[in-house]
Structure formats: C-alpha cells, structure tokens
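quick one, 471 residues, struct below
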Amino acid sequence: MQKRKVGIITFSDGRDFVHEETLEMNKKFEHRLVKALESTGEVEVVRASDIVNKPSKAKKAGKEMMKAEVEMTIFNYSIWCWPHLSVMASLYAPGPYLTYGQINPKYPGMVGLLAAAGALEQIGIFPERVWGEPEDPTVLEKLLKYIRAASAAHRLKGERYGMFGGRPMGMYTASANGDQWMKEFGIDVEQVDQYALVLKAEKVPSQKKKKAREWLEKLATVKYDGNRLTPEILEKQIGLYYAALEIIKEEELDFVGFKGQPEMTNNYATLDIAEAFLNDPYDFDGAKEPIVAATETDMDGALTMEIFKHIAQTPVLFADVRHYFKEENLLDLANSGQHATYFAGKSNKPEENLKNVIIHPEDFYFPAGGGAVKHFAAPGRVTLARLARQDGNYVMTIVPAEFVELSEEEKKRLSEQVQIEWPHAYAKLDTDMETFLEYYPCNHTHGVYGNYLDELVHFCKIKNIGYQILD
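---
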C-alpha cells in the first residue's frame, strides 16, 4: 500500500510575545495530530519546519509542502491564529485543504479554525473542516476519509488511460471526451489499436505462456472442452495478458480499457484472462500492483474504477447490471472476465481465491473461444458507484450494497438462468429496484468491499462534481 503523503502546517498568533508563550503548546498539539495520523499506517506526514506566526514563515511552509510534493495539506489550529497566514500559505501549499481545530478552550483553537476557514472561502478555497481530539477514533476516521479522497484526486493528475480499440457496440456511455478528462481530472488518453496486442502476444515466448498456464491449472479448475477452450487457446489468452503489460509499460499507461467485441472475440480470443489478472493484486509471476482494466473500452467505467482504486487501495469490480431476481431481491452483477479473481475469496493470496475459480469455456457469442474466469463474489458490505455524464456534466451515482453468500444449489440455479460460465456477484442493494432503475445512469457498475460512501462524496466535492446516493 502506497502511503498518502500529507502536509501539516500549524499556525500561531502574529504577536511575538503570544507566539513565544504558546509555542511549546502548539508543538505538542501538532505532535499529537502527527502521531495519530501515522499510527494508521496509511499516512506519511510532512511537517512544516516552523510554527507559522509571520507571513514569511507562511510562504516558507507552503513552499516546503510544494517541494515535498504532498498530496493535500492540513492547516492545524490549537490557538487563535491570524487568518491571513493561512491564506498566504495556501498560495504555495498543495491542495485540497483540511482545516483542523484542536480542543483547547482556554486558547481558542475553534476560533482560529473558523476565522481561517472563512478567510479561505472568501478567496474561493473551500476547505474541509474537522474539529476534535486526534486520538478520538471518530475524529481520526473523519480525517482519513477526507485524506483518502484528496489523495485520489491528486493521484489522477498526470495519469494516462490506454484505450485499446474504439467505441464498443454503439455504447455512448462507454465513450468520453479526452479533452474533458484532461480539463477536469488531468488525465491524458492514449489510443492503441487492438492489433498491437495480437502482434505482441504472438511474440511472447512459448515457455513463458506454458509456465503461466500450468500455474493456473494448478491453482484453479480449468475445464477444457477441446473446442472453445484448449491449452493452446488458453495460452493465446495468457499471451494477450503479457502483451498488455508490455504495452502498458512502453506507453507509460496507468489504467486501460479493451474493446474486445467483436474483433478479438470473433477472430483471436477473448480478453477475459488479461482483464481479470490486470485487476488482480497478483499474476502468474507473483504479487503486483493491480492495474485497472475495463472491458468494452468503458472510459467512465475505468475512471470510476481508478478513483475507487486510489481511495480503497484494493482491486475494483467491473460488472454488467445483468438481472434482478425479484423473489430473492438480488441484483446479479455479471460480466465476462472483468471480475478480478480477488473477489472469489477477498484475499491477496492467489491460492485462497483461485481455489474458488473455474476457467470455463466461453459459450456466448465469442466464436474465437477462450476461457471465462468463473467464480462467485465473496460476501461482504460493498460500495458500488458509477461516474457518468448528464448533459455533458459529470455526476457520480453511489449505491451502498451487500454481496451475499448463496448455497451451491442456489448459485447453480440462478447462474443457469443468466450466464453459467461467467463470474457473478449477487448484490442486495440498500435501495429498492424501482429507485435504482429510475436513477442509475448506465449498464455497468463498479465497486469495492467496505463502506467508502463518505470518501466518494468528498471526492465529488473536491472535483466539483454532482453526486446522488441511492440508499
């Protein structure tokens, strides 16, 4: 897990005698905040070298944060502080900003917080406000939720999305404007022809593909049928994975999307293996960083997944909103290949997940053949979401839900009605289906285990994006 680099600037009174009198107190309050944040294991703290009581120190502190390349800055107040110092620090210190007020009633930290936050808002900077003891778990969680969102917004800047192929099957919701992405998120879009995957896949050494195939056969169940799925076809799929990795490295891509249908699925092989293992925290060669990969070159889907990845720092689900089982009150989320095998066991260890995975012959409209990565998502609370455009403006729809565990008999009965060879996640939504169908913006959804609703709302506010919560 890459720690989130957070800057802290602590402010003071502009009068020298007050500053000197309260200096050690200020340092102790700052130390408590630093200690609490670092105790989470999520945060790397960068402190300003001085407690700020003069304009020169405010500028210096801001420049120190800039030089350290922090992902966001906390302005810390434990006493009354002169508000213009916060404004001057904001000219240099990287945002987003969180104004934090310590509990210190005799020396009014709350007054300092409110005066500084108001000053920042007057110049168009709208910081998050948190007040309380840093050791309080509720307060610390508020800080972390904002830090995660701010870090995600920061990490998107300068990333590159690799679009392998064009718009799939006429899907407007899968295509986005690269100019808008650069303007709103700082993301560059690189177009890559799918034929580049084929060319590189054919050059992957046979021994490397064989070794990967044998690893997969050892840990998962592979159901060869002699037609749609053979060892040779599975190795073609593995070759596509290694080809994608090579292009990602060459083009310096951060996340990707593959068109797949119909060119690859008609003429070469499905991309299920590549898509699943790119999204996984491991592959045939060991542990690795998950690389967000969306099928059907779904740009806004990939962007939603990348936001989730930066916030939760876990693999992210991509799925079709496939079917609603009314009697069971379950939404079936299924998609060929796109469920990382991580979801089969909710583990970072491949052996724990792959024992629940079947590489199943494709029986859908994919004449080139290949193995589908079949499994059922492990149970647990999840946050689902989708970033989509409405009349050109981005809106995020957030859906709290739970993946439920079914009996083997129920899994077989329900999956046979939909797509038996594909992976499934059976979701019980917090909202009702009428509300979901009225307001959910497209046919794809994305999500992670855990409750990240507040982080997504913070992200939307930071990026000035509208949001709606279906709960």
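Residues 16-38 form the longest helix (23 residues).
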